[in-house]
Amino acid sequence: MNIVIKNKNDIEKMKISGYLASEVLDMIKPYLVPDITTLELNNICHDYIKNKQKAIPGCLGYQGFPKSVCISVNNVVCHGIPNHQEKLKKGDIVNIDVTIIKDKYYADTSKMFIIHPCKKKEAKKLCYAAQQSLYSTFKIIKPGIPINLIGKEIQKYINTTPYSIVEEYCGHGIGKNFHEKPYILHYLNNYKKIILQEGMIFTIEPIINLGEKHVFCMQDGWTIKTKDNSLSAQYEHTILVTKDGCEILTLRKKEKINRIYKNI
């Protein structure tokens, strides 16, 4: 398998892209209020990326995707297309997925937002579980471990909850290309052939459903929804494998976790 091991220059460039991607999620938070449309949110993100950051929104035009960010609301699992008809409501849970290209290097990240006031305890718990399932992997990532331990760790955490893991979508290598090898499965699997090496950069992006794991694609060819109409939540970071652990390249300013994990 042709996996690109990033050199020092690659890593420095991707740290910049990662910071910019995280910055978009910090910037957009105050705008997530009832009655704003997902298209308005998309346009705010687009203008910020293009005019403030002098970067490129990586989603726009990728394999025909028509908007600059993906916005997935409630039962939308991923790849939600922003539009002028969809208005956010009190109690909604919303994933915004941002991909940045800066100096030809990509970074990819997403997080959940809750539109307050939210009285749905199950929605808050689901978002928390999705976040913690991602966080659980950071303490095990290091050179020399088989790649399937990432999915095993996520499965281990989700098994302590009543929720399910979507299996159709996975994390991926990233660099000068949006999607590279290796692919990161987010559930228990036996794919042990790939061993993590220093300089690998990839995303981890588990999607967790309140109900069953099964999903389907809408007629637009992009929007993925839960089959049972249950809520879905996702968090994503771009991760660098270091000599003794890992570094989160898309860490947000107010995120209360470490940027660097030493696991050796």
From TrEMBL:
<feature type="binding site">
    <location>
        <position position="205"/>
    </location>
    <ligand>
        <name>a divalent metal cation 2</name>
    </ligand>
</feature>
<dbReference type="InterPro" id="IPR001714">
    <property type="entry name" value="Pept_M24_MAP"/>
</dbReference>
<keyword id="KW-0378">Hydrolase</keyword>
<keyword id="KW-0479">Metal-binding</keyword>
<feature type="binding site">
    <location>
        <position position="79"/>
    </location>
    <ligand>
        <name>substrate</name>
    </ligand>
</feature>
<feature type="binding site">
    <location>
        <position position="179"/>
    </location>
    <ligand>
        <name>substrate</name>
    </ligand>
</feature>
<comment type="subunit">
    <text>Monomer.</text>
</comment>
<dbReference type="InterPro" id="IPR000994">
    <property type="entry name" value="Pept_M24"/>
</dbReference>
<keyword id="KW-0031">Aminopeptidase</keyword>
<comment type="function">
    <text>Removes the N-terminal methionine from nascent proteins. The N-terminal methionine is often cleaved when the second residue in the primary sequence is small and uncharged (Met-Ala-, Cys, Gly, Pro, Ser, Thr, or Val). Requires deformylation of the N(alpha)-formylated initiator methionine before it can be hydrolyzed.</text>
</comment>
<dbReference type="Pfam" id="PF00557">
    <property type="entry name" value="Peptidase_M24"/>
</dbReference>
<dbReference type="GO" id="GO:0006508">
    <property type="term" value="P:proteolysis"/>
</dbReference>
<dbReference type="GO" id="GO:0004239">
    <property type="term" value="F:initiator methionyl aminopeptidase activity"/>
</dbReference>
<dbReference type="GO" id="GO:0005829">
    <property type="term" value="C:cytosol"/>
</dbReference>
<feature type="binding site">
    <location>
        <position position="97"/>
    </location>
    <ligand>
        <name>a divalent metal cation 1</name>
    </ligand>
</feature>
<feature type="binding site">
    <location>
        <position position="236"/>
    </location>
    <ligand>
        <name>a divalent metal cation 1</name>
    </ligand>
</feature>
<dbReference type="GO" id="GO:0070006">
    <property type="term" value="F:metalloaminopeptidase activity"/>
</dbReference>
<dbReference type="GO" id="GO:0046872">
    <property type="term" value="F:metal ion binding"/>
</dbReference>
<feature type="binding site">
    <location>
        <position position="108"/>
    </location>
    <ligand>
        <name>a divalent metal cation 1</name>
    </ligand>
</feature>
<comment type="similarity">
    <text>Belongs to the peptidase M24A family. Methionine aminopeptidase type 1 subfamily.</text>
</comment>
<dbReference type="InterPro" id="IPR036005">
    <property type="entry name" value="Creatinase/aminopeptidase-like"/>
</dbReference>
<keyword id="KW-0645">Protease</keyword>
<feature type="domain" description="Peptidase M24">
    <location>
        <begin position="12"/>
        <end position="243"/>
    </location>
</feature>
<protein>
    <recommendedName>
        <fullName>Methionine aminopeptidase</fullName>
        <ecNumber>3.4.11.18</ecNumber>
    </recommendedName>
</protein>
<feature type="binding site">
    <location>
        <position position="108"/>
    </location>
    <ligand>
        <name>a divalent metal cation 2</name>
    </ligand>
</feature>
<dbReference type="InterPro" id="IPR002467">
    <property type="entry name" value="Pept_M24A_MAP1"/>
</dbReference>
<feature type="binding site">
    <location>
        <position position="236"/>
    </location>
    <ligand>
        <name>a divalent metal cation 2</name>
    </ligand>
</feature>
<feature type="binding site">
    <location>
        <position position="172"/>
    </location>
    <ligand>
        <name>a divalent metal cation 2</name>
    </ligand>
</feature>
